[in-house]
Each structure stands twice: as structure tokens, then as C-alpha cells.
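<instruction>
Derive C-alpha cells from the sequence
<data>
Labelled lines for chain and fold
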Amino acid sequence: MSKQAQARTDMLHGSLADKLFWFALPIAASSMLQQLFNSADVAVVGRFAEEGALAAVGSNTVLVNLLVNVFVGLSVGANVVISQAIGHRRTEEVGTVVHTAMLFSLFCGLGSMALGLLASRPVLSWMGAPEDVLERAVLYLRLYCLGLPFIIPYNFGAAILRSVGDTKRPMYTLIISGILNVCLNLVFVIGFRMGVAGVALATVLANLFNAAAVVVLLCRETGFIQLRLRELRIRRAVLGRLLRIGAPAALQSAVFSLSNICLQTAINGFGSSVVAGMTAAGSLEFFGFFIIGAFSQAATTFAGQNYGAGQYRRCRKILRLCLAEAAGACLALCMVFLVFRDFFLRIYTTDPLELEYAALRLQVMAPLIFTTCTYDNTGSALRGMGHSLVPALITVLGTVVFRVSWVYTVFPHWNTLASLLAVYPISWLLTGAMMVSYYFYVRRRCLRSDAPDSEDGSGQGDYGAETQGA
């Protein structure tokens, strides 16, 4: 058996609890390593760069998430289409998906880079970035945008590898690039005194390595996901299928990030010390969200293959296990951060006022981050089964609409940082209740308990069916 085959997970047969855990673990580690790119930026500028550099980087956090998450959402389409094709044993279609997705990701990277370079200053000014850090924030964002043609193809390539159960090799590339990023941060900031520009340039170079590594891995594949550069072309029919699944997820990510931009604008009004404190605490919170996100990707991929194979009982079990494992792991990690918050927060800043604001955010957010799995993991399982539009709309309504309404109605009457932060856990609980309700509606329609599984994984599911109206 080749190393490539050994790296893959059989999602259609055998036990699920251990496979879901070991599938999600490298994804969580990969996401955490990606966050370490930004966390390394935050830590280095907070400890070694000039005053105000931490706030300059922190002012860009939600914008960077917006740029990246939109295309991570689009990559979900490639994951689902490939997973369902494998479950249905139509592997001859996978090659066209791979080549369409990778070329599309390159175009997306170039387009978003151009847009980011042009819009950096107007958007940061509109968000109310503090005047004393605006120029450095614009510089950081423009340099970061230069790396988008590398970041987006990496995420699409990683999604392709994960669709066949290979989560380890994308993680290995991130380990190497993470070490590279940290080393370059220290060289550029401490050695060359480049400040904000140094940490941004280090991130760009690390992402260049990431993209190159994943492309090489795909080119060296010997199976149906092999990438052949001469065959790169966009097939309209395939792109349409990718977008039917990926576009709602991308839209959800976009408007979700826009709501966070609205909240960041309100936070900016409290001054640069608050912005720095929120950035330090947020850097820790991301690790909890990455655990949830890892099990969400597991739910999408496992549900996609098993739904394509007609194994509906396994689909139901996949979601139950993902919810339990994600919630338990996330809560445990967040409690560690909360209990030892002084130690972890001092990694990013030693300013007493910034530490006070960061501790406040952790106390409000950390105990309830695990509840996001109720809508994130559930929505991801639904996408794996072809239901992408309604979960996106539920997330938009429960988080985006609710949060923006809160900022313009409740917050003006209780104009405190605590009242602004409270909108996060309230929106999590509201969105989770709506998503779980919709899941049970779909379950009654499409995952009936009396529907027999195709135990041999022979592909009796509704592969390619549009089930958005279910």
C-alpha cells in the first residue's frame, strides 16, 4: 500500500468515534498553526515592536478573516462534491473537480489581492481604526493581501486532500511554514527593525511555501485526485456544482465577518488599548473555534461520503459524535485559557490596561465558545448532505442580523464594553437553536430511521441531488 493510500481514512466502514477524532485532530492542529501565523505577528509586535504596533495588527484581524474565510467557504464545495462522488463510486469525475477547483482558486487569489490593495485604506478608515495606528494598519493589510494568491490555493488544495481522508500532510506543511514564519518574524522585527511590515512580509513568505507544498503533493498523487498542470481548466458544469455548495458557505462567512467588522468598529471607539486587549484575548479564543471548525470539516467530509453511499444511519451518528467530541475538547481548552489567563495573555502584551481588557473578554467568551458547535457542526453535516443554502441563511439571521441589530439598538443604551461582548454568546445560543431545529426537519425528510443503509457503501444515496428545499 502506498503512503498516499495509508494517509487516507475509510469513512464508509468500521467505527466512527476514533476515525472522526483522528481525522479532526490534524485539521485542528493545522488551523491552530495557521492562527499562529497571526499570533506570532501579534506576540512579536506586542513585545518587540514600537508602541501602537499591536493595535495596528489587531485592527486588521476581522478583515483578514473576511478575506480568507470567504474562500475557505468556497473550498467546501470541492470537498463535498469529491466526497459524494467517492461515496457514490464515481471517482472518474473527481479529476475534473480537482483541476477546476485549483484554477478557480488561483483566479480568486489574484482578484482578492487586487481588491484588497485598492480597498485597504478606505475600509480601515470606515472602520474607525485609531488615527495613531492607521498608517501602519494600512501597510500591514496591503502586504498581507500580497499573499492571498498563495493562501487561497493552499486552502482549496488542502480541502481536496481532506476529501479523501488525508489530513496529516496538510498539517505537516503547516508545521514547517509555521516555524518559518516565526523565525522570519524575529529576524525582520528584531534584527531589521521592520515592525509591522516585517511580520506581514514573514506571513506572505510562509504562505508562499504552504501553497507550493500542497501543489507539489497534489502533483505527486497517483490516484484520482492527482493534479496535472497541463489539464488545468475550468469546466462550467463542475464549477456550477462547486458553487451551489460552496457559495452559500462563502456568503455565510462573508456576512459573518462583516458583522464582526461592525463589532470591531464599535470596539475601535473605545481606543487603542481596548483594541490591543481584544486582539490578545481573541488570539486565544481562536484556538477554541478551530477545534469546532475541525470537527465541522470532519462532519462535512464523513457525511458527504456516507450520504453519497446511502448510509443514512451513519450520517446521523456522525453528527452526534462530532457534537460531543467538539464540545468536550473545546470546553477543556478554553477552561485552561481562562484559569491561566494571566500567563497566556502576557505572551501578547505586558501593558496592565491591555491585560485588564483582555481578561474581561476571556471571562465573557471562553466558558461558552463550545456552544458554537450546535450551529457550526450541524450546518457542516447538512452541507455534506447537499443542504447548504438554509444553514447559511440561519447563520446569517442568528449571528449577523442579530449582532448588527444589537450594535445599533441595545449597545447605544448600555454603552459599555461588557454589553458589546455579551452579543457573542447570546447569538451563539440563538443560532444553535435554529440550526438544530432545521436539522431535525431534514432528518425526518431525508434521514428517516426506517431508511435502510447501504452497508457495503455501494452508493445508493442521492449523489448530485439538489435538496435545498427539503
